[in-house]
Design goal:
The protein is about 20% helix and about 15% strand. By secondary structure, the chain is an alpha/beta fold. The relative contact order is 0.11.
Length: about 150
Amino acid sequence: MNLSNLKPAKGSVKTRKRIGRGPGSGLGGTSTRGHKGAKSRSGYSRKAGFEGGQMPIQRRLPKFGFKNINRVAYRAINLSTLQKLADDKQLTKIGLEELKASGFISASHLVKILAKGELSVKLDVTAHAFSKKAEDAITAAGGTIIKL
């Protein structure tokens, strides 16, 4: 075998249908489009969602819901997570950099501290938002909160 006798595998290459090339081809005349009607004309295109005149699904179903463009999405971090982080790395201050370094958030995330779990160490916590119970728990443990 060399470059001069390379061929595709048998049956892998098919010749395309050459429609509209006269009656001898067997594909002349109406060129596989049938007789008359919009679909036989050039330039025909069916509307997206057209169901043959039946009421289309996007009109049968009711409208619902909306997207609130003013919504602020926070990444939730619980007190139990802060406690574990403080224990593992012997931290007294936890901010966005520490959370980023440990893989809880990425650069673009906003952080909200929630009150699930217990906090037994004094921590200075920096975040974008705090739940009321989380604020109380951090200050009760002798720590401080800083809202960004």
